[in-house]
Amino acid sequence: MIDTENVTCDTCTAPGPAVFDASDEASRAWPRVDIVANPYKADFPLLAQNPQIAFLDSAATAQRPACVLEAQKRFYETMNANPLRGLYSLSVEATEAIAGVRAQIAQLIGAERADEIVFTRNTSESLNIVAQAFAPTVLEPGDEVAITIMEHHSNLIPWQQACRAAGATLVYLYPTKTGRLTDEEIAAKIGPKTKIVAATHVSNVLGVENPVKKLAQAAHAHGAYLVVDGAQSVPHMPVNVADLGADFFAFSAHKALGPMGVGVLWGKMELLQQARPFLTGGEMIDAVTEQDATWAPVPEKFEAGTQDAAGIFATGAALDYLVNQVGYKAVAAREAALVHYAMAQMSQLPYVDIIGSIYWDCHHGVVSFNVRGIHPHDVASIMDMQGVCIRAGHHCAQPLLTWLGVENLACCRMSVAFYNDKHDIDRFLEALDTVWRTFNG
User: Fold this and answer.
1) Known catalytic residue at 12
2) Most CB atoms within 10 A, among 83, 145, 176, 392?
3) Model pTM?
4) pLDDT computed for residue 25 by the predictor
5) 245 near 212, Cβ under 8 Å?
């Protein structure tokens, strides 16, 4: 059953509370999308070959379409050489392939220059580069770094370390219980002492989209920089870093249909040039003597060692499939319809407590919940026996769950992607019923 307290959510379009009876539907902008038919699942080998699986953990990692697996294989079969390190044709072809993906990502997120795109291993590494390579160039004792309480540990622990090293203070922005950051909270926490603001674009627990543009305006008004964790936004919605007002933006390929082990950091060129090297070694240098070294230009300055060239090449295929073959409009509409249907049914279950907003369109692909009196790990384990894959635990967001007062610092999370369908949600709901009956007869 959904908690109806503190339901206001300025970022949502839904005009009323989560009441899903027919009389209310006419007043709600709910998505009328056919979620029974599924034109996408056949593109994903794991899903196509295992119809017994209802995969509802895409916020952790997405499934890969066949074109991505084929692209990774094609790199090794046709251009397997180390980019940037050879003058022979295979190496040149690999170099050009990686440069093409760099330009593709720059265009995708609205970056001015392709060389502002730095390839990393994941979002965590990207954010650590900002916290450990850039932050020390601007943070001084007495300064403040402002983050939200809903941050993933990847956008929280690096700032704890950066503040500790600089003698700065970590300041938290607290939303309403539904996840909404108010104008008053932004004004109260971002001020003259603020040097850096770091925020998730979309919460991996609450599913809420943060008002990043407002955070950018507040940060820049005080001469501060905005760092955005886009791990949960790029897979689901168009992103334009200039429009957002970001100074740095990070995301992972594996949440956006690409391979594991590839991340992206975008930053304004002058800030990337200002930052110190993060890792040192091969390829990130311009010249080396016995006692000194000078650094290669951005982005090579941050890409020490051999990169996952095949993974980067396959990331290009993943983003092409996501953006050009499926399209963000179709992604958003289908995922919204799936969340709407799931929440409509979950709201009728007296033993289910949804965490966060009662508005379905505040949950961008993510619905976190608990089953009363049953530990989330037990819920997930029993669901797994039914072939339903959900996440259970603290979701790398322990401070958020502590602040929300979530029992055991753990909850269940059901997260959808456009390749899910009504059958997956029905399987999930049936498994929920099995969980409840297992413990309550």
Assistant:
1) no
2) 145
3) 0.94
4) 40
5) yes
